[in-house]
Specification:
Blueprint (H helix, E strand, L loop, with lengths): L5 H4 L2 E6 L5 E6 L4 E6 L4 E7 L2 E3 L4 E2 L11 E2 L4 E3 L5 E6 L2 E8 L5 E2 L5 E2 L1 E3 L7 H6 L4 H7 L2 H5 L2 E3 L15 E3 L3 E6 L4 E4 L3 H8 L19 E9 L2 E8 L5 E5 L7 E8 L5 E7 L10 E6 L4 E9 L14 E4 L4 E5 L2 E5 L4 E10 L10 E4 L4 E6 L4 E6 L7 E7 L4 E8 L2 E7 L13 E7 L5 E9 L14
């Protein structure tokens, strides 16, 4: 904002690397864009502006003051995609990028400070422009009532096309969806309003997700990864606010199909998702590791072939089935499965609780050789090393303390563990958040191998598929 340069303004959030190691795709969440980087020349080839999603093409509940769950179709809102996590998969010889479209505003402390967040009823609409769209004065006033769009979190930096303080467009944060883009940044598929409807339909099963989130960013898709099983490519989408994981069949990237919605009452706010191929798993079955930020837990998911999912470990309660017409919901104690038509269902097979609560389980990575998982623990400022040899009963092997910085991310390749470490920036630490960060490399026992200087606030990191770069 203001007088900042493009380089200062871009906020890299996540990264994915092409299947041939030649290109990196970098999510600039607050900029509503992603960058395409040539890894051979180490140059930023282009920045793809993602634009906005037209909510008038679907049915959404965009208020927390409308008496509950009330879906309204055709609402005149444009919302920025603003992806958080991204992942890459190859189908038919072509690379595709998956994005979890969470949305995020800007708010900077200090003097003079800056924020671009407001509520819908804070906006002054361009009366003439909106009248031409069919909204007379009364309709414009009604539009901004709390039960309509008055409570919606909106951007003041967008929508005022001529800079006169009157808004021609109501622009929100996040697309409340998962999108698929081709390698050039062209939109191939979007889940539309499906996530909003599924989370609200089954809201009675979900630990804390209510209509109170509808005015903000809804279910907030946060993490995404992909994996293959039985010849089918799947997308796994973690929902930070709604909880749980949605599973999509990626057989046809332009028509990805909802497969299953899994949520667990004792695993709150998925942050990082890690897929373990069957060939790398101690059970010879694929695993999905879900790091849950608020509960400080890891949920371990694996596929089963049966019409009714198995119980979560330790559950003695019977399962209750309910046929909703569109999907079958199976409620087994603390686990809910909402299933599509496929005969493969993903279910909880193990779990780990740090006992430290919020922040103790954010991002995870997995090493096939040692069957260990490495988890960013922001509470203790450590990387927690977990033994996953028996997924039903994982346990803490060692808590690897990170000194002179805060661990933000972790990845593993062939026994080499890479950790992104940011400057602390706390009073008395002698460090600033604008100081250079580090990438620290360890073996799987936690022994330091080397340290490399990185830029300020290194957030996410990943190995290239061939393991030759980070």
């Amino acid at each position: 904002p203001g007088s900042s340069t493009v380089a200062q303004d871009l906020e890299p959030e996540y990264i994915a690397v092409s299947s041939d190691d030649s290109t990196a795709y970098i999510a600039f969440q607050e900029n509503n864009a992603f960058g395409i980087v040539d890894l051979e020349d180490m140059e930023l080839d282009s920045i793809v502006a993602l634009g906005t999603k037209d909510y008038s093409e679907g049915c959404y509940d965009l208020s927390d003051r409308d008496g509950g769950v009330v879906f309204t179709c055709g609402q005149p809102v444009s919302s920025m995609y603003m992806p958080d996590a991204m992942a890459l998969f190859n189908s038919g010889g072509n690379d595709y990028i998956l994005t979890a479209n969470e949305g995020d505003g800007r708010e900077y402390e200090g003097e003079p400070g800056y924020t671009d967040e407001a509520r819908g009823d804070d906006l002054t609409l361009n009366a003439t422009y909106w009248a031409e769209r069919g909204y007379d004065a009364a309709a414009q006033a009604e539009l901004l009532l709390d039960e309509n769009l008055g409570r919606l979190k909106v951007s003041t930096a967008d929508g005022d096309h001529d800079g006169d303080g009157e808004y021609e467009e109501i622009v929100g944060y996040g697309a409340r969806s998962m999108s698929i883009w081709d390698a050039n940044g062209e939109l191939v598929f979007d889940t539309g309003d499906q996530i909003s409807h599924l989370t609200q339909t089954y809201g009675e099963y979900i630990y804390a997700y209510t209509a109170s989130r509808n005015d903000d960013k809804g279910a907030e898709p946060e993490g995404v990864t992909t994996g293959s099983y039985g010849g089918t490519d799947y997308a796994f989408l973690g929902l930070e606010r709604a909880g749980g994981v949605m599973v999509y069949d990626l057989t046809n990237p332009s028509r990805a199909m909802f497969d299953q919605y899994i949520t667990f009452s004792n695993h709150v706010s998925p942050e990082g998702l890690t897929f373990v191929d069957a060939s790398d798993s101690p059970t010879n079955q694929p695993l999905l590791l879900v790091a849950n930020e608020v509960s400080g837990t890891i949920a371990i998911i694996s596929p089963v072939h049966q019409s009714v999912p198995s119980h979560a470990p330790g559950d003695d309660e019977p399962c209750l089935a309910s046929d909703t017409g569109a999907h079958l919901a199976i409620d087994c104690g603390n686990q809910l499965n909402v299933m599509g038509d496929a005969d493969v269902h993903w279910t909880l097979v193990g779990q780990y609780d740090s006992g430290l609560g919020e922040g103790a389980s954010e991002i995870s990575a997995y090493d096939a050789g040692s069957h260990r998982s490495f988890v960013v623990n922001a509470v203790t400022g450590s990387i927690d090393i977990l033994d996953m040899s028996t997924p039903a009963d994982p346990y803490l092997v060692h808590r690897l303390s990170i000194i002179n910085g805060e661990p933000n991310s972790v990845d593993v390749h062939d026994g080499l563990v890479a950790v992104a470490v940011a400057g602390v920036g706390e009073e008395g630490s002698g460090m600033s958040k604008q100081d250079a960060g580090h990438v620290m490399f360890f073996d799987t026992d936690g022994n330091l191998v080397s340290t490399v200087i990185a830029g300020a606030l290194p957030d996410m990191l990943t190995f290239t598929p061939d393991g030759n770069g980070v």
